[in-house]
Every structure is written in structure tokens, then in C-alpha cells.
Design goal:
It contains 6 helices and 15 strands. The protein is an alpha+beta fold and 234 residues long. The strands form 3 sheets. Strands 7, 8, 9, 10, 11, 12, 13, 14 and 15 form a 9-stranded mixed sheet that branches. Strands 3-2-5-6 form a 4-stranded antiparallel sheet. Strands 1-4 form a two-stranded antiparallel sheet. Strand 8 and strand 9 form a beta hairpin. Bound molecules: uracil.
Length: 234
């Protein structure tokens, strides 16, 4: 059970003060009866709350898929650059989401945003062994030796990578797909650097079995479906 003002401010973009004013105006109903007080207790699972006749959908946590454009930092705020949470639509801003992991400023593609710390923790846990799939364009063609090198578990200053999978586009070997189990700083770019090639374009296309929705335009956000969340056991 939670207070009506908390319920409404969690479910919609109203402050607690605004909720109290709405209740005063008689604009809030609970199970069809006009609410008299913002303090009344609500059962999140059972009660139906309407504001101005519109039924609210209560949720505490939200899980968003963003098709990240280049030029945005994977952060909640920054003094100089735009950040990914700027791309969250106004009606979802009050959830105060943050990015799950990071993509570089110049990397595009699949980034999850949530306000659920447990979800973030679970996905970032090395124990989860979640592979991330990237599409990359290189300055030089990739070859069989690169496949062996990536699979060997490359050695870096601060870590040894788990075996990475590499697929080369037979029609254009400068186009590749790389799957890595970690998400260390600049990892894909550093792997290619070790292989003597430069990444010119990088886009994340999947996290585990969750693929970037091909119909989601760059810069747009949508909520994950129940099926998509189930991919992570959520
Ligand atoms: N590897 C990189 O080099 N950059 C990213 O943004 C993600 C993985």
C-alpha cells in the first residue's frame, strides 16, 4: 500500500504538490469515487486511479531501449556535451533513468536506460556473462588471423578478454560483427588496434538475446516489452 500522492507522482509526471492540488479540485478518483485526500492509501496491485478521467498505469521501474546517436555521452548530466537521458521523452522524465553500462560518445546503437538499480547490477555483473554484439566498419579488411586473435582471449593492461567472436562480411571484409563478453573502456576499438586496424564506425546491435529494434529510429526511445525483459530473466 502506498499513499495516493506517491502513487500518482510515480505513475505520471506530477509533483506531490500538484497531486494535492488535483485532489483539491476533485480531479482524482479512486475506484470511481472522487478522492478526498492525497494521503489515502492505495493498493498498487488492485486499485484503479484516474486523473481527469484518465486511468493511470502504475509502475515504479521503467526499462527503455534507446537507439543511441553519435555525439551523446552515456551519462545523466554533463557540463559540455548532450547526454543520453536528454533523449527521454518528457512524459517519462520523472522516472529519472540512467544508462545501463556505456557506449562511447561516437558509438551508436542499443543502450538500455532504467531507474531500477537491481536490473543494472544484474546486467553488469560479470557472472551474467552477457555477450554484446557490435557492428563495426574498419579502415582495413579483416581476415582469418583476426578471428583467431579475437578468439584467443586478448591480453590488455588491466584485463584478459574472454574469447570474442568475429564474423567478417564476405562481400566487404572491412565490415564485421564482434561479440564480446565484457564492456571495458573502448574495448572493441582497443581490440582492433591490437589487430592493426582502426574502427571508423561502431554500433551496438544486441545485448545477449535482445536485439536493437530495427524500426526504432536513431535518437528514439521506447519501453522494453515484457518478452524483451524476460530475455534477461526479469
Ligand atoms: N567498445 C568500444 O570501443 N566502444 C564502445 O562504445 C563500446 C565497445
Amino acid at each position: 500500500m502506498i499513499r495516493l500522492d506517491k502513487y500518482i507522482s510515480d505513475a505520471a509526471a506530477y509533483s506531490r504538490r500538484e497531486v494535492r492540488l488535483l485532489v483539491k479540485k476533485g480531479a482524482v478518483s479512486v475506484n470511481g469515487i472522487t478522492a478526498k485526500s492525497a494521503d489515502m492509501k492505495i493498493d498498487e496491485a488492485k486499485d484503479s486511479v484516474c486523473v481527469n478521467g484518465e486511468k493511470l498505469r502504475y509502475r515504479k521501474y521503467i526499462y527503455l531501449m534507446l537507439n543511441k546517436p553519435q555525439g551523446y555521452l552515456s551519462a545523466t548530466e554533463d557540463d559540455h556535451d548532450p547526454v543520453v537521458v536528454d533523449l527521454v521523452p518528457d512524459e517519462l522524465k520523472h522516472f529519472n533513468v540512467f544508462p545501463v553500462g556505456r557506449l562511447d560518445k561516437d558509438t551508436e546503437g542499443l543502450l538500455l536506460l532504467t531507474n531500477d538499480g537491481h536490473f543494472d547490477h544484474e546486467l553488469m555483473s560479470p557472472r551474467k556473462n552477457l555477450y554484446k554484439r557490435y557492428y563495426a566498419e574498419l579502415d582495413l579488411p579483416a581476415n582469418e588471423e583476426d578471428i583467431t586473435l579475437f578468439a584467443s582471449g586478448m591480453q590488455f593492461r588491466e584485463f584478459t578478454a574472454k574469447p570474442a567472436r568475429l564474423e567478417i562480411d564476405p562481400a566487404d571484409p572491412c565490415k564485421v560483427y564482434v561479440e564480446i563478453a565484457e564492456g571495458k573502456y573502448h574495448q572493441v576499438k582497443r581490440m582492433w588496434e591490437k589487430a592493426g586496424k582502426k574502427v571508423l564506425f561502431l554500433k551496438r546491435v544486441a545485448i545477449g538475446d535482445l536485439e536493437l529494434d530495427a524500426s526504432l529510429p536513431c535518437g528514439k526511445v521506447r519501453e522494453l516489452t515484457a518478452e524483451e525483459l524476460a530475455v534477461f530473466g526479469w
